[in-house]
Design a protein that fits this description.
Layout: H1 2-11, H2 16-40, H3 46-69, H4 73-95, H5 112-127, H6 143-165, H7 172-182, H8 196-251, H9 254-257, H10 263-282, E1 286-293, E2 298-304, E3 315-317, H11 321-329, E4 333-335, H12 347-350, E5 365-373, E6 376-385, H13 393-437, H14 443-457, E7 462-469, E8 474-481, E9 490-492, H15 497-504, E10 508-510, E11 534-542, E12 545-554, H16 562-582, H17 591-604
Antiparallel strand pairs: 1-2, 1-6, 2-3, 4-5, 5-6, 7-8, 7-12, 8-9, 10-11, 11-12
Helix pairs in contact: 2-3, 2-8, 3-4, 4-5, 4-6, 5-6, 6-7, 7-8, 8-10, 8-13, 10-13, 13-14, 13-16, 13-17, 14-16, 16-17
């Protein structure tokens, strides 16, 4: 009995409330620090929870100060109630949008202004004197504030339950949060006169004692959970690293690079694979890859996440948004707070009314990474999240590494392709030399072989070789690929692109007919019947005299690279030797000299 009496004497001591309040302040500050650590570990809801605990510490300090100074309840009650309601509002705002199922999922649809309004009503109701003894032992005006606090803390407790389920199955943190919620109804109790003040003091002591136990329990459990969260985050980073290494092994597989796949298809498959891997590692639904059209100054969306699938093929200026800025500046762009900067543009801001989209209306963080080949941009990746400050430094480093792997894989593939083509070039020249020195040789067949080989090296299917008749200023097609209907066709050198190459004694390349400002496309003569958007003409020169031209055309703009042109020139020189044999002229040269020269060019390539 003496122990019970001793405990009662302590619990009902008028000074106990003041000390209980002071003891809670460092505990609540520790909770604020722990919440900030949770936020740093990418648990976004803890940002507002941290602010809520800071306000709660302020509430406790003001409460203790007012008790010490014996401030009149007319001032102390509204002040304490206001701080209490603000604290609970932050807890509610922090977690109300985190629930994906259950009855709390409907909280997402509750507008913030309505929560503010309910909080103001609860604060005003508790602050205005009245309702005493209308119902025995109950403060009616305290009920709205008690319900508001209880609802906010129960919602917080359920969030804690979901939070700990990701780390361990124990529900102790949930239990302490519910205990903290339950004491909110203690303060609706009131005493009967004349002992009301004494009863209220005891209720306060009991409430603050239980609150101290509940907050201490929350602090201990939250600390344990964060230790587990840190370990969990470390494991996730290790898994990402292992997955990245495994992916690197796949994407950079040399055997795969030498599989003979078409260069454009291989490049596109690499770019698409990198996008999918990045989206999977970050577990985000929004992202795309856009290729750069240098001539148009635009970006064209080629590969997307499922959410952006309707935007495939959409074209926009490189002056628009973060992705364009990343291309122009050739460096990554990260914006973790979209609302504070104007360099991020939503699709809805520059899509036409006929093609609107609201997919990115809630995006709060975005990161774009240019794809550079030899320091020249070929496209850009864009990743987006509806969470503020989503992209951590670890995420940025991971994305940078994966995009870098894309460029490495593409360059490796191009190198393998170049080596393969150079080997093919040398083998072709050796085969031609063998045909030249043979006893039986059909020069037209040899020219057909040269043409076919050159087109293969240029990765094209349309082309011809034409020889020059100086007396008539005409070119006659003596070998052609794809269509045979125009072999033997003649045309004047002064009204054709091929004739321009004869006059200049240098190659003529028109990469894009649709955007050519030189006016040369007016000279184009179409013998194939195929719509042509790109043409390359190389003169056949022997002893500084043009004897014909090699011509190759494509329906696709920008079809030939500098490496393609160099390879085709080697074959054009060899064709010049054979054209000279087929169409003798006084300046005919020894074919062996021509072969040696071209072999040297091939080896140099």
């Amino acid at each position: 009995m003496s122990i019970v009496f001793f405990l009662k004497s302590i619990l009902f001591d008028p000074k106990l409330n003041y000390y209980l309040t002071l003891i809670q302040i460092p505990i609540v500050l520790c909770l604020a620090i722990q919440s900030f650590q949770a936020y740093r570990l990418n648990f976004k809801a803890f940002k507002l929870i941290c602010i809520g605990w800071c306000i709660n510490a302020g509430y406790l300090f003001v409460n203790a100060l007012m008790r010490k100074l014996k401030i009149d309840p007319i001032i102390s009650v509204p002040t304490r109630t206001f701080l209490d309601i603000v604290c609970m509002s932050f807890f509610l705002f922090a977690v109300k949008d985190t629930f994906e199922k259950g009855f709390l999922y409907k909280l997402k649809k509750v507008p913030n202004w309505l929560i503010y309004l309910i909080g103001i009503i609860a604060c005003v109701a508790k602050s205005i004197p009245g309702s005493l003894h209308l119902v025995p032992l109950i403060h009616l005006r305290y009920i709205p504030a008690a319900l508001f606090d209880f609802g906010a803390l129960v919602t917080l407790a359920i969030y804690f339950k979901n939070f700990t389920q990701k780390l361990h199955r124990k529900k102790i943190l949930y239990g302490f949060a519910l205990l903290y919620a339950s004491i909110q109804f203690l303060w609706i109790l009131q005493g009967e006169q004349p002992d009301a003040a004494n009863i209220l003091m005891k209720i306060d002591n009991v409430g603050f004692a239980i609150g101290l136990v509940a907050k201490t329990g929350i602090l201990v459990c939250l600390s344990i959970s964060l230790i587990r969260a840190t370990s969990y985050a470390a494991r996730k980073e290790e898994e990402k690293l292992l997955r990245k290494l495994s992916f690197s092994t796949t994407i950079l597989n040399v055997k795969d690079l030498t599989s003979g796949q078409d260069a454009d298809l291989k490049t596109n498959s690499i770019l698409e694979a990198i996008l999918k891997e990045c989206l999977a590692m970050l577990d985000i639904p929004l992202g795309y890859y856009a290729s750069l059209d240098q001539n148009q100054g635009t970006l064209i969306i080629k590969y997307t996440s499922d959410a952006y699938s309707n935007q495939v093929g959409y074209q926009y200026s490189i002056l628009d948004g973060m992705s364009g800025k990343a291309v122009l500046e050739r460096k990554k762009q990260v914006n973790n707070r979209i609302g504070e900067k104007a360099d991020y543009k939503r699709f809805s801001s520059f899509l036409s009314k006929k093609n609107p989209t609201n997919v990115d209306k809630n995006v709060l963080s975005a990161a774009s990474f240019p794809v550079l080949i030899d320091d020249e941009p070929i496209g850009v990746y864009m990743f987006e999240s509806d969470e503020e400050r989503f992209f951590s430094q670890a995420d940025i480093n991971l994305l940078s590494a994966l995009v870098s792997q894309a460029t490495t894989a593409i360059k490796n593939f191009q190198l393998v392709q170049e080596l393969s083509l150079s080997r093919s070039l040398l083998n072709g020249l050796m085969h031609i030399d063998m045909l030249m020195t043979g006893k039986e040789r059909n020069l037209e067949d040899i020219l057909e072989f040269i043409l076919d080989k050159a087109l293969n090296l240029a990765k094209n299917q349309i082309g011809n070789i034409a020889l020059l008749d100086k007396s008539r200023d005409e070119l006659t097609i003596v070998a052609e690929a794809s269509l045979k209907a125009f072999k033997g066709q003649t045309y004047k050198i002064n009204d054709s692109i091929s004739g321009l190459a004869v006059t200049k004694k240098d190659y003529v390349y028109i990469p894009d007919f649709a955007n050519d400002a030189s006016g040369l496309t007016s000279l184009y003569q179409n013998f194939t019947g195929v719509e042509i958007n790109c043409e390359l003409v190389i003169p056949l020169i022997v002893n500084d005299e043009v004897i014909g031209v090699f011509n190759t055309e494509s329906p696709h703009a920008n079809s030939f690279s500098k490496a393609d042109i160099d390879r085709v020139e080697s074959f054009a020189r060899q064709a010049g030797c054979f054209g000279n044999m087929l169409h003798p002229v006084p300046w005919q040269t020894d074919h062996l000299f021509c072969w040696q020269r071209n072999a040297a060019y091939a080896l140099a390539a």
